[in-house]
Amino acid sequence: VSANQDLQDLIKPQKVEFRSLNFNSTLHWQPGRAREARDTVYFVQYKVYGQSTWQNKDSCWGIQNNVCDLTNETSDIQEPYYGRVKAASAGVYSDWSLSCRFTPWRETVIGPPMVTVVHSNRSIILKLQAPRSPYRRRRGSKIPMTNYYDLLYQVFIINNLLNEQHKVLVYEGKDKVIKIEALRPGVSYCVVAKMYVPMLDRSSAYSSRQCTVL
């Protein structure tokens, strides 16, 4: 019995946590201390905070991966959820390992916007597109993150004559098409943007740089 108890403890999953980008939410964990237990499989359950019964995640039942996609199971984004994982090896099952409470609306990381440089003639015209969630409208298109939050676009200009770190905020607001004017011809300008969530005082990462010479 003690050998089984030892194995139970050794294979118990560690560091169970939700990670979420634009509401694409996955449960991650690390294997237990028994690194040599190659045949370990994992079982995942989830529930809404306050519910008494756990639900099995069928596609993550007896898997060898250390990650399980719970995007569809956490689609009520204001609800708090828990996930838990147990391991089995050589017919021995570990206890469950529990995640912290996870509320998608509060905790998902919002990604940067897409930026397209349309035109330049002493000015740069930018088209901005907010990131999209995995959830779909009835007609099938993915719902943008602007439906869930009051989001602002922040646009920064990098003049390549200056150093890369020197970003100047040239626009903050909700317009999807903006014009940056009074720029010098023959100078290379690069633009990056990010999403800002005033209510949570959080920003996305920067978008990839878009550069143009006027």
Question: What distinguishing features does this structure have?
Answer:
214 residues; mainly beta; Immunoglobulin-like; 2 domains; 5-stranded antiparallel sheet; 2 helices; 7% helix
Structure description:
The protein is mainly β and 214 residues long. The protein has 2 domains: 3-106, Immunoglobulin-like (Sandwich), CATH 2.60.40.10; 114-213, Immunoglobulin-like. The chain has 2 helices and 18 strands. It has helices at 2-11, 104-107; strands at 14-21, 24-30, 41-48, 55-63, 67-69, 81-89, 92-93, 97-98, 114-120, 124-129, 132-136, 142-144, 152-159, 168-173, 177-180, 188-197, 202-203, 210-213. The strands form 5 sheets. Strands 3, 4, 6, 7 and 8 form a 5-stranded antiparallel sheet that branches. Strands 13, 14, 16, 17 and 18 form a 5-stranded antiparallel sheet that branches. A hairpin with a 5-residue loop joins strand 11 and strand 12. The longest helix is centred in the N-terminal third of the chain and has 10 residues, at 2-11. It is elongated, with a radius of gyration of 23 Å. The model has no long low-confidence stretch (mean pLDDT 91). Its main location: secreted. Keywords: Disulfide bond, Receptor, Repeat, Secreted, Signal. It is found in: Secreted. Belongs to the type II cytokine receptor family. GO terms for molecular function: cytokine receptor activity.
